[in-house]
Write a structure and sequence with these properties.
With about 900 residues, the protein is an alpha/beta fold. Helices cover about 45% and strands about 15% of the residues. The chain has 37 helices and 28 strands. Strands 20-21-22-19-18-25-26 form a seven-stranded mixed β-sheet. Helix 1 runs parallel beside helix 3, helix 28 packs antiparallel against helix 29 and helix 33 runs antiparallel to helix 34. It is elongated, with a radius of gyration of 38 Å.
């Protein structure tokens, strides 16, 4: 016998899932373990015969072969039927549930768990996969299960999977009229009376902009349908959270307490609170049943838990961009337009000489003025002066209300009548969108559409990082908090933490970027430097470097016993502007939002807040998490590659390193930038183009010293990006052959890695250019002086070797020719030489270069030769004789000396 168990007081989701499961397990029977919700009971009064339901008392436990449990993972929710889970004759126990926040105590042989709105959805998906059709009665009760548990797809736990499942059930013939009858059946007479009593006795509390209500109902017996009463109360009173308690007597000495919880407050999790007392459910709807307890104490504990979970509302200070770009009223329309284009703003704030706000001018206002030919007119004639402003502590709901009521796209933030920030409609929409996307199942976790990217932002981060790194970040955050600043871990460290597998152990990240956001405390541009100095007091072994032009400081450890080799960059949050393509950016202090906005790719524009009160908060304004999931490299700005070609190389490096793909639009931007000729023009017009010089060399170093360097070069060539090194450089078949040969040479002749291999690979690339370009490119990339000279002299050296080496008649002549060149030069010559010459160079490096004279200076001294310049000539002649096999041992060497250098 195969049985399907519904939890006690079965709801439509449990019944619907069980009915669907009977089609997946032909011949199975459904057991309602202990009662059902009133609407379910009323539904079954008419439709019971259409489903394979049996009574628990009619089951012979000895004949049970398998058990399937739907809509729960808890034994105590199965009533007396839970005893069957321990039967020795059971061959299988299967669990289907969508409550992921619970710890299962059922020893299942198979579990189907997923974060969907209804357990029935899991069954529907399997029915679809197996192409099993349903009757109208089956489809109807399953559709009811999804409708009721998702609030007809309006509850936050609803997912697209639930909607698809409902659509399929409608195709299977689900009756909409039956669904509408039982989805909201109305309250019974008893519940209506309790509704009136609840409304009269409801107690309220307002906290952080939310209203929480609670009430205790005392009845003689158990009241079915309390969940419907709770939903009705929430709807009628428009409260944000409700605790509905029902206390009734079991006998003279024992009582029972039922509590129903509902919450519409973001980031609250009733499931966590109710689980502590043996209950459970969803983040927004949960319940519990207890016997013989102090009802007032239980209700107070739950109420305190809800109050503790209510988040502090975001304020203008959290949302605003700062500092604000301002202009004077006398600024011309043309100049204002230029500033807008430079900084990418949609409007500018206008302040008087005292810095007080007098107006705002939008891009639309400027466009109209320019259209009518008023480019030289002052902005004061076109700016908006009837302004709505807000304070730093204005909450997000208040800001949203102002924008909607007055149709305002930007709200200036004033503190002591001074402009300190600006909140835009985009800021609000982005925050509201993020709130909707947050995983309500566990406030300490984020989740990307059921992807693998999960990290506990308060505890798992500590577990994921090496302890010494966690200690360093903790100290840094404490020092920031002392000064009233926010501190963020940004960029690659956050990306790598998110990509790291939980089972991979702790991470010892070697390169950490920290950003100090202190604009709200009037921190100047030196905030990052100040924090770095404070950290050096704690870590005196660290070397401090300060880069004033970029408002950054760095702490460096080298082979430290605790931190090993570590680089920590600390910057003040900033924005930047490129005065011309490939230049160094000009930077200004700003906020964390603008700091992230200036970065290269979405996957590098994620920040993790380290300071309280929202430590562990993840900032992802540009979809970086989704791109990590999709394995995409996506650029933030269309002009990003025109401004900084090194971003092309970084994008390729990340793509190859992580096995990601460059997103199609980003690839188009890359190709456009390269084909536009902007890099050639800017190099001709400007003496300094760091992005095509030192910064490009740095990116080439990162690529060419990595194990994936060849794949990266191939992708760069495919994009046409090797043109950034020189317009004629291409990774053709011949260059690929030379690079393969280079690797053989490096393995054979430099096993100890006395040479810098990435530099040799770069020299090989430059070596492939026409001779007249090699030295120029080497200088442009600011290579080391010996590399520049080598590449400048390479053409003449190649010519000499190619002409002279075939003429050498003896090994000594080969050595005399080739020993004037160092190993890197000989390798580069070999790469472009025919096979016969390569063989001779190879023989020289492997054999001839290692031959030594059979006698040395000490031997000559013992033989009576007076030390002096003659020694060099004697030893050279002796080496030649040894190479040419004229002498073969020391005896012959002494005879050679006696003959040619008698004394």
């Amino acid at each position: 016998m195969d049985l399907i168990l519904c939890h006690t007081t079965a709801d439509f989701d449990a019944l619907g899932a069980a009915v669907g499961l009977t089609r997946l397990l032909p011949g199975s029977k459904i057991v309602l373990t202990a009662g059902s919700h009133p609407p379910v009971r009323d539904f079954l009064a008419l439709h019971r015969d259409e489903y394979p339901l049996i009574e628990r008392r009619s089951v012979n436990p000895e004949k049970i072969r398998s058990l399937s449990v739907v809509d729960t993972q808890q034994r105590d929710r199965l009533g007396k039927a839970a005893e069957w889970l321990d039967l020795p004759n059971l061959k299988e126990i299967i669990v289907y549930d969508h409550h992921l926040g619970q710890e299962s105590d059922i020893s299942a042989t198979r579990s189907h768990l997923s974060s969907v709105g209804a357990a029935t959805t899991l069954i529907v998906e399997q029915l679809q996969q197996q192409e099993i059709s349903l009757t109208s009665a089956e489809a109807t009760v399953m559709a009811l299960g999804i409708h009721v548990d998702t609030g007809s797809l309006t509850y936050d736990q609803s997912t697209p999977r639930d909607a698809l499942a409902l659509a399929w059930l409608m195709e299977q013939g689900a009756s909409l009229s039956v669904i509408s009858t039982y989805r909201d059946p109305g309250l019974s007479l008893q519940l209506q009376q309790l509704l009136t009593e609840s409304l009269e006795n409801l107690e309220y509390l307002c906290l952080r902009g939310y209203t929480v209500a609670w009430v205790t109902l005392r009845t003689k017996n158990f009241v079915p349908g309390l969940s419907s009463l709770a939903s009705q109360l929430v709807e009628l009173t428009e409260i944000d959270a409700l605790l509905l308690a029902n206390e009734y007597d079991l006998d003279e000495s024992d009582s029972r307490l039922t509590v129903i919880g509902r919450s519409q407050i973001p980031k609250t999790n009733l499931n966590v609170l109710f689980q502590l007392l043996g209950g459970g459910g969803h983040s927004q709807a949960a319940s519990l049943n207890l016997r013989g307890v102090d009802s007032e104490a239980i209700l107070k504990q739950l109420l305190d838990g809800v109050k503790a979970q209510i988040p502090h509302p975001l304020t203008a200070r959290d949302l605003m961009s700062s500092p604000v770009r301002t202009i004077l009223p006398e600024t011309t329309i043309a100049e204002a337009q230029r500033i807008l284009l430079r900084y990418g703003h949609s409007g500018l704030s206008v302040v008087d000489a005292q810095g007080q706000l007098v107006g705002i001018i939008s891009r639309r206002d400027l466009d109209v003025a320019l259209h009518h030919g008023f480019s030289h007119a002052p902005v004061k004639g076109y700016m908006t002066t009837n302004l709505k402003t807000i304070a730093p502590d204005t909450t997000l709901p208040q800001i949203e209300s102002l924008m909607v009521t007055y149709d305002i796209g930007r709200l200036p933030v004033l503190e002591n009548e001074q402009l300190v920030g600006l909140v835009t409609r985009t800021d609000v929409l982005r925050e509201l969108h993020q709130e909707r996307d947050e995983d309500e199942e566990d406030e300490q976790k984020f989740k990307i559409q059921n992807s693998k990217f999960k990290i506990s932002l308060s505890t798992e981060l500590q577990n994921r990082l090496a302890p010494q790194l966690w200690k360093l970040l903790t100290i840094a955050s404490q020092e920031s908090e002392k000064r009233g600043w926010h501190l963020y871990l940004v960029g690659g460290a956050v990306r790598d933490l998110l990509l790291a597998e939980a089972a991979s152990g702790t991470l010892m990240i070697k390169d950490i970027d920290l950003v100090v956001d202190g604009f709200h405390k009037s921190a100047d541009v030196g905030a990052g430097v100040e924090l770095a100095k404070a950290l050096q007091q704690v870590y005196p072994a660290a070397r401090l470097e300060i880069h004033g032009a970029f408002q950054t400081a760095a702490l460096l450890w080298h082979k430290d016993p605790e931190l090993d080799s570590l680089w920590v960059d600390i910057a003040t949050a900033r924005t930047e502007f490129y005065p011309y393509p490939a230049a160094n950016p000009e930077v200004e202090a700003s906020s964390i939002r603008q700091d992230l906005y200036r970065r290269d790719f979405t996957i590098n524009a994620i920040a993790l807040r380290l300071t309280t009160p929202r430590a562990g908060e993840l900032l992802d304004f540009f979809g970086g998490l989704l791109d990590l999931q999709a394995k995409h490299i996506r650029v933030l700005h269309p002009n990003s590659f025109i401004e900084d070609p090194t971003r092309i190389y970084r994008g390729v490096r990340f793509a190859v390193r992580f096995g990601f793909e460059i997103e199609p639009q980003t690839e188009e931007f890359i190709r456009y930038a390269i084909n536009s000729g902007v890099y050639d023009r800017t190099a001709q017009e400007n003496s300094k183009t760091p992005a095509l010089q030192t910064r490009l060399k740095t990116e080439l170093k990162h690529i060419l010293e990595a194990p994936y360097w060849k794949s990266a070069l191939e992708l760069l060539d495919n994009l046409g990006a090797l043109q950034c090194i020189h317009p004629t450089l291409k990774l053709d078949v011949e260059l690929l052959r030379q690079l393969r040969l280079l690797e053989r040479c490096l393995r054979r002749f430099d096993a100890e890695q006395t040479l810098i291999h990435w530099e040799m690979r770069l020299e090989a690339l430059i070596n492939h250019l026409a001779p007249q370009y090699r030295g120029k490119v080497a200088k442009n990339l600011q290579l080391q002086e010996d590399s520049i000279k080598r590449l400048q002299n390479l053409a003449s050296a190649q010519t000499e070797v190619k002409e002279s080496l075939p003429k050498c008649q003896s090994p000594s002549q080969v050595v005399q020719l080739l020993r004037q060149y160092d190993l890197p030069m000989l390798i580069l010559i070999a790469l472009q030489s025919p096979r016969s010459l390569r063989h001779q160079i190879w023989e020289y490096l492997t054999v001839l270069a290692n031959v030594q004279p059979l006698l040395n200076g000490n031997d000559l001294k013992k033989l009576g030769y007076k030390p002096g310049p003659q020694y060099r000539q004697i030893l050279d002649d002796m080496l030649d004789a040894t190479l040419d096999r004229v002498i073969k041992d020391k005896t012959e060497a002494r005879e050679f000396l006696a003959k040619h250098y008698p004394h």
